[in-house]
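Hey, I was hoping to borrow your eyes for a little while. I'm sending you its amino acid sequence along with the backbone structure tokens. Take your time with it, there's no hurry, and the full record follows here.
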Amino acid sequence: MRPPTVLPAARSGDTRLRRAAGPTIAGWAAGIVGTGLVVWSPDVLFGYHSPSAHLVLDSVDACVALLVAYLLHGRFVRRRQWQDLLLAQGLVLLVIAGIGLAWTVEASGLGPAGTLDVWLPLALRLLGAALVAAAALVGPRRDAPFSSELWVVGVPLVLATATFSALWAVRSSLPVALDRPGALAETPQAILTGHPLLLAGQGVAALCFFVASLVFTAQAAEHEDSLLRWLGPACALAAFARVNYVLFPSLYTDWLYAGDVFRTGFYLFLLVGAGREIREYWTAASRAAVLEDRRRLARELHDGVVQELSLIRMESHALPQEHPSRNRIMAASDRGLDEARAAVHALGHDEDEALGSTLHRTARELARRYRVELEVDVDDSVDADGAQRHAILRITREAVSNAVRHGHAGRLCLRLSRDGDRRRLVVRDDGDGFDVLRATGAPAGYGLISMRDRARGLPGSLEIDSEPGGGSTVTVTW
């Protein structure tokens, strides 16, 4: 067998890298441009005072995060991978921190304004960012030894309760993280407002999301996972949101700022990834259902039609040698068996099977059936879609059948190769050969016409080279 070339694989890897890096680069570019305008364009006002808009964004963000967390929970139950679990837990923590927790603490009077109502959501968001970064670093191949549904929600609730208890125990000594009345009185250009620990916490969260963005993008280039592909740009926007919260802490005020836009962009990218994941899941489910139905039909054909045709062929042996219909019945039975078995193989095998593997399997079957020596030389880098693979197999079967039945060939060679973008299938035999012009002209048989039509539909061409006594060569190029 000819060793497969590595060029197509390299091209495929480059394509996956470009597809994975494109959205992430766009997310980083948007974050850099937006943050740059905030810092270097003091004449442009980015702030918008709207408590209701803040509430709407918080609600939308929480709903999207819960949807994606639920999706990740389903992935974790199916695959039992640490990455899905940690991602789901991180999103649940971000939901807990973002559904009005600060306003709830402030309204309940559990501490002075600007203390517990700021430190508690900050701590939970920092834990959520750390879990997202941990999910990226763990990778998609580490399996968890458990798959309980309680881990997705239970761990975030325990962490939230423990964080609240720890901060509640030291509530009297908590510093004022942010002077809310003072922040509200300032213009939207306020920079570096808040306690140093508040700014440091947002900076650490930004670093976690930056790391997650780069790692998720690298992983998306290696794995065909739509959700991974969109986690890279999502985490980039989440990181720049935290950078903007360092510059202006609008998260704890009634002002809408660039950070709030980036934060919502993070959840919108997650929503896009979730939509792609759901679509792929249902597509895979429908394909599995179709494949199962095809296999059922293959079993019915094998246990019904194939067995009956085999019985007819076996019974035809009981006819006398001089019977005029004996050979015709046996030949018709052989053709029917060939067609039925081809249908069984087409229905019973996955459409994603590689062309090289399919040709190897078909060659073994044909060699065993016709009792001929069949040499196979296949370049495994040659690919084809489902329709092309079906046409190539039918052409191969017809060429081998003609060579054995009409040309009385004892040895055949099947070769599949490529030359740049051109792919070529060659079937050569040592049979009796025939007059090509006479056989392919107006009175051409249906088998040759069918082979030519199938080759044109690839799209491609069919060439037949033969002469009496010199064997024949069938070449398909597409």
Summary: The radius of gyration is 34 Å.
